[in-house]
Batch of 3 targets.
Target 1
Amino acid sequence: MARIPLEDNFNDVINKAQRGLKISDADLAQRAEVTAEDLAAVKAGEPIDAVIRRVARHLRLSPAALETLAHKRWYPQQPIFPAGFAAFNTPYEDMTVNSYLIWDARAKIAAAFDTGATCEPMLDLLRAEKLRLQYIFLTHTHEDHIADLSRFAAETKAEVWANELEPAPLAGAKAFKENAHFHLGPIAIKTLLTSGHSPGMTTYYVTGLSWPLAIVGDAVFSSSMGGSATHFAEQYQNDLKKIFTLPRDTVLACGHGPLTTLAQEKTNNPFFAR
């Protein structure tokens, strides 16, 4: 199976941070003491280490992690779940998007997180494992994450849930407040409001599987984070306080890009490595 590429390149990270902090090119070049030409080259994807490190310090990014990303020296080691968890990566326009299933093998009940571009692979697994889908949880209601929601809900008859701050995704969908709790047999699911990329962006913290699991949507990506031109600080602080305080062995199931772990991101994510 081909590995899923990282969601962002190093220059994407620079652009996200710069846009979020509202720092112009001219101001950034002056602060970092680099030429406008070198800054433009780096922002276009040329990995000039000295410029990357200078710029990183003025964008609150880890210079070492950003340089590592620029040279593609690291890819997250993929955690293994022997049972009860599956990830799906489906193409949507010019990108791919992730969705996830968790289940209790004894009770044969399951929960889905987002639909991706198509729910067909999830339906196939539900049939193969003879699982009943009880819940469809939405990290947020951007189109790429709920593209096949109507079909998925109709075919499974599962309850659809999203944070009350998100636009209603579907007639009959239910809304929860912060810190809602759900259960699938011995599996516990807690909601954490990690807004910024969207008003009701929700991280679902799951315990009772092989590893603690945080399904984070577009709040965090491996080596990056969800962008927002208007609520960048809110997204960053929510990530820091609600996701990066979870146990270090927590698996992060992101809306785009590969699976990762909190421990790996604390070392390799330019936004959060220190």
Note: The chain has nine helices and 14 strands.
Target 2
Amino acid sequence: MNVITIRQASVADVALVAPLFNAYRQFYGKPDDLRLAEQFLRERLQNGESTVLLALDTDGNAAGFTQLYPSFSSVSARRIYILNDLFVAPFARRASVGRHLLEAAAAFGREQGVPRLSLSTARINSTAQALYASAGWVRDDQYFSYSLEL
């Protein structure tokens, strides 16, 4: 399986990306809900609230995606992007799709002039951690992350 294209997705691509986004959410313990996935992606893309990079195989099948959300760094006093989602379809795993998506995300960030991308992943997701480390991402051991469920 060779990835021919990684491109920025548009609202017209929601039907291609949504099954992957739905599977990504299921990986993190959320129920199967393709309609919710489609709605969420459509709203983000229509409102310009995220950038989705879509990997397509030679037949035009969606092989993977990553979603970047704009944010800001107070310390840098600049915009940054949070790589919130990265998912590769089972048929495309072990074919460097994830690495290509990370490279495309970095290229997008450079084009936008941001000083960094950031991400977080589950402690048990050792496969993703190995990919991130091999792609030059550095794990932050200086700060703790907290969240408050509301």
Note: The chain has a mean pLDDT of 94.
Target 3
Amino acid sequence: MARTGMRRVGVALGAVAVLATLGVPGSAVAGQDDGHAGVQAALVSYRAHAGPGAAVHAGDASRSWDLHVGPKVVNTNQIIGPNDAFRIASQTKTFTAAVVVQLVDEGKVALDAPIERYLPGVVAGNGYDGNRITVRQLLQQTSGINGDSGNARAKPDGTYDLRELVRAGLAGNPPKTEPAWNYSNINYYIAGLLIEQVTGMPARDAITARIVRPLGLNQTSLPAPGDKSLPGAYVHGYRGGTAGPVFLWLDTTFGDWGTGPAEPTRWSTAGGMISTLSDLAVFDQGLADGKVVSAAGLAEMRKTVATDWPGSEHYGLGLWGHDLSCGGRAWGLLGDLTTGYSSATMATDDGRHAAIVTNTAVLNNDTPTRLDVLDAALCDKE
């Protein structure tokens, strides 16, 4: 969900195809906040290979501000606002990791204990041994677990069980022969099972009780099985590309034949959550401020290993560490979903925060990247 590839256009059964001119309505171009010209320029450049719309919510300990370009619904003047809901994809992993670290704080889980201790027989077969994979390695993506759960069988009602996602993922993908950092959603499906085993409640309820409600994240949720809806004034998701002088945008907010339905249990504790730019900024800042896990727990989350992803070379427990151009490091995560969203949120220890979303999956490495835009926002002096 945070890996990059090429964008493509397809004919979507059940999706809404919209022809939109290369230009966007004037009222959907200017920033909402005065100033921040450098950030606005970076956002406009980013939207040129993203789109149809993009927005940033950023600020410091004393205030927040918002910028946007392009529409949240094509051929309208509707902008992406800080309180508009969207599917946050792999940003879900930070919530999941934080709950596990809370359980570590409470003495109910040990980071360096084998997952077999808590989920006997779950991580087994096809070369896997739960006695040789620790909780830390799962959260840090260094378990050697490989691939995804594309062959998972849905239940008769179309929803997915976490155990089935884990079973299918492990059975279909043998482990890496030399375990190192390797991004796989399966690690976080297993983490979801761990939460359920230790807390005795569904992972979505644990995340709600332990993080969403205490932080007052009223626009954030891991939806119930079968709930494919988006609340309130949501951001529409699109897939698209150029077709002569226009873009062809396919409205895939709720899925299409190429991506499948927007069933939240298919992504679950690895990528199934819904939130907003403002809520995500509150969460990441709350994590940095010690409102979610203990100081010792946060230090564990920030123990990183190297990755090969430019701009996100440091990966901890459900957190990227991004080295800022103005000095220091920001912490957060990225998220991509093929039903039409790319997003990222970062926060620093001195109260700076920035969140970005665009309403298509930006599966390429064109610059500026979303991290370039966030870097500009976090380093902004206006």
Note: The CA atoms of residues 83 and 276 lie 5 Å apart.
